[in-house]
Design goal:
A hairpin with a 2-residue loop joins strand 3 and strand 4. The termini are far apart. The chain has a domain of 227 residues. The protein is mainly alpha-helical. Helix 5 crosses helix 8 and helix 8 crosses helix 9.
Length: 354
């Protein structure tokens, strides 16, 4: 190359991707790992507006969630054809250089798919966490339209599916899909997800219906939202238990309904299936060190003590009301006696007519 060769960029116009519709078109056309990772990296910087379709922020989040689904295990990235090739020992591997690593490694197609899925998972939950704000040093959701829109029926079911509970097998207890605790988990992605889920839980138990509705439509929308949140609480309890964040349930312990307590008890009784099977009772699970069983026992104690104190309060209120009635009756009788005495005195002082 001649040292005076013109910069090759001068013959090109590096235009930005104009909108999400164009981004999707480009995504459909790329086949290389690096191009996919690059598009994902800048996907959230692209404008949503498109003349072809009225995209919303949910469309982008849901697309990233669909790419991220299964990011925790290579096996989730296998097609039936991939499994057949693996079974015949015909699986191909390709040489790649991991980020921040000088050594090249060989990866199969499912492993490369998982790399793309991990990138999507990291980016999408960074965005979801941005819906929350820092308050008093802790990240918690503020009441706002974005949080409420997460619970709508065109978004929330997909979120629940992403964190769906897997089936129990002969050798393993159920797990939370995309949130397992194996050694191969990418820790920063896991932290993003758990932070989002704990904030989502706070929003679910902290949500309150408005005291006033300007229209019947707003009332119906709020009622549907409340019903959707109540229906999802047992699922959220199980997710928190299985991702070892059950301690935050303590603040809502007395607000857990029967379905939530059933889920809590079911997970509390689980043990290592290969060794111990299941605990027979909550007390036995507590003896074995289960923090979930301890939560259930604490719930029982708090409920009984709350009822006892409520009974005392109600008894005191009844006694106070009875004392008030007796005092009122005594005052009324005293007033009557005083009136009678005054009347008698007046009659006594009245001159007798001749």
């Amino acid at each position: 190359m001649n040292v005076e060769t013109q910069n090759p960029l001068l013959s090109r116009a590096p235009l930005p991707i104009s909108n999400w519709g164009e981004w999707l078109t480009r995504w459909e056309g790329v086949i290389s790992l690096q191009e996919m990772l690059g598009l994902l990296h800048f996907g959230f910087e692209v404008e949503m507006y498109s003349r072809e379709r009225n995209y919303t922020w949910k469309d982008r989040i849901l697309f990233y969630l669909s790419i991220a689904d299964g990011w925790t295990d290579d096996w989730h990235m296998y097609t039936e054809e991939d499994r057949e090739k693996r079974g015949r020992d015909q699986e191909c591997a390709y040489s790649v250089r991991p980020t921040n690593n000088d050594n090249r490694v060989r990866k199969t197609i499912p492993q490369l798919r998982r790399e793309v899925a991990t990138k999507a998972a990291s980016l999408v939950f960074k965005q979801l966490i941005q819906i929350t704000v820092e308050v008093s040093g802790r990240c918690r959701p503020e009441p706002n339209p974005e949080w409420e829109s997460i619970f709508t029926d065109d978004f929330f079911p997909f979120l629940r599916h992403f964190f769906r509970i897997t089936e129990r097998t002969e050798f393993s207890n159920p797990e939370v899909m995309n949130l397992t605790t194996g050694s191969a988990i990418n820790s920063h992605v896991q932290r993003f997800m758990i932070q989002f889920l704990t904030n989502l839980a706070q929003a679910m138990w902290g949500w309150q219906e408005p005291s006033y509705y300007s229209t019947d439509e707003r009332r119906e929308r709020a009622e549907a939202l409340r019903a959707r949140i109540e229906d999802a609480k047992p699922w959220m309890v199980e997710v928190l238990c299985r991702c070892r964040e059950s301690a935050m349930l303590e603040k809502w312990l007395l607000n857990l309904d029967g379905k939530c307590l059933e889920v809590l008890a079911s997970v509390a009784l689980e043990k290592d299936l290969l060794r111990d099977g299941r605990a027979e009772t909550v007390e036995a699970a507590c003896y074995d060190g289960s923090p979930l069983a301890w939560l259930l026992i604490r719930h029982r104690v708090l409920s009984e003590e709350t009822k006892r104190r409520q009974g005392i309060t109600e008894t005191n209120q009844r006694e106070q009301e009875a004392r008030g009635r007796r005092a009122a009756e005594a005052r009324a009788k005293a007033e009557i006696v005083a009136a009678q005495e005054k009347l008698a005195a007046l009659q006594k002082d009245r001159p007798v007519s001749s």
